[in-house]
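Progress note, project year one: complex with zinc ion.
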Amino acid sequence: MKRKMMTFLLVIVLLAALTACGKNGGKGQAEERVTQAVKATPTATPTVTGDVTPTPSETPATPTEIPATPSGTPATPTPAEFKAPERNCSIDFPTREVYHYDMDLTLDTKADTIGGHVVFSFYNDSNDAWDKLCLRDYPSLFTDPQAIGYLMSNVNGATTVIENVKDGRDNSALTMTRDSDVSVIWLALSKPLAPGESMTLEYDFTTKIPTLDDRFGKASGIYNVANFYPILAEYTKDGWSHVAYFLNGECFYSEIANYDVKLTVPTGVIVGSTGAEKNRAEGDGTVTYTYNAPFVRDFVFSASADFQVRTETHEGVRVNVLYTDQYADAVDLDEVAMYSQIAAKNALAAFGQAFGRYPYEELDIILTPLSAGGMEYPNLVQIGDSAYLYGAVDGVDGSAMYYDLQIVVAHEIGHQWFMGIVGSNSGREPWQDESLASYTEKVFADYCNSIGGDMRSPYGTDPGADLFDFKNKIMVDMQREYGLLPINHGVHDYRSDSTYVYSIYYMGALVMEALEDAIGQENFYAVIREYVHRNAFTNADPESFLELIYECAGTENATVNAIIDASFDLSNYDRSRLPR
Ligand SMILES: [Zn+2]
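Model obtained:
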């Protein structure tokens, strides 16, 4: 997920203002969007609306007023033995058995429902016997939109109907119970599933698609259908993980699976989805698309009769931009689609070189109304209208056209590596996907600049350097005081949504930049490449990233050690894997 673009200048103001909190949601942000148009002018005084209340008189001292503490360690330490795959390496699908979802779905555009029959084959990948299964059913939360963070109350949701739940081992019917968090469903197994044992779970479901212009909902003629079917939760060393829904970020956590999906939609409805289309069959007023999506951790789609599709390829990957003519009176949507595609191809090139090449056939970019700037799903990203309706459309001070749009596209595509290829617990360790995806914005910009483009930020040449310096302990203390550090809290552990956003997205990205500065860009890219290589198509624990930093930089690098000590709370981590 990418929050709407804001200036780093704004962050400095917010350091003193992270006290108020509230929920952003839907059209309640109209005022914020207007404000962003002002913020796009670098000389304008930032004005904040929405969920934060600035107190300019409490603005902390700027870093230049604080004497820097020189670091005692040079910035080029790499131990010779650190090995990582070459730049632009391939990321190969695993040969091991993975879970499999076989789904036969129908989108009913009269009832606004999605549903069908699911045959889900999986195995117990833990060392514990499972006497129950945990499924997540997020759509049922939309019966009470305020409970999940929306301000409005007319989203028209409904509890998902789940029927005919069967354990394929003996065809026994399974009984289902819901927690008070209605997204958490428990299925009691009559016979425990032993470690390594396989089973097939079958069920029918019907999910109401709420009336919402957001990542899950129908609005403006677009169906965004995500997190919509009952999906197996992730089993961890602490049992089944079911972090409560979080509107301003993610709680999603699932295993890699192969998906074979038949999706029937009314004739004329155009679909962008996870995976790639393998067949198309005309019915009586319907079209049934067949998709195959290998090695992904979710299946989503967007559908609209109004979609136009712009397709190009990048090194064999089909990059589709799907968009409607909404806002055609305000912006040239063909141009927006073109810049989205340019950014997508540059992002695939940049991240392919830095982290390993995108391993899938296709990538869909959906331009859609959204409460956030963008939202990531496997093989599909949603880009919110705020990314192209406001911001540096004209190229402020010579910067790139549609700078905000391109950065949001890059961020969401960065998630294809950090969320998609390498999974993690997005609710408990959001830095593993969001801080890394925010850092990929810099990887993208550096790549574009290196090939003769100009992705300098119109918001300042090096805002991170102005914001803080990890060598400066006083600044670190101050950021701790304002709750922005450490960056490895869970989504519900931050004192407010704003603290979460500025910790994970801004501070988190700056921590990554500081690490890049400390060990050098090539070394840092190599660390991330090795992280992807070791954890591809699994869920990575947080220690795995930090231990690679130490493997590359050694344990005696004072700068690296200071950065990690300042920005992570290691008390809940397995210290035996962290060599200091
Ligand atoms: Zn994100």
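The first strand starts at residue 99 and ends at 108.
Residues 1-2, 376, 411, 415, 434, 437 surround zinc ion (CB under 6 Å).
No further modelling is planned for this target in the current period.
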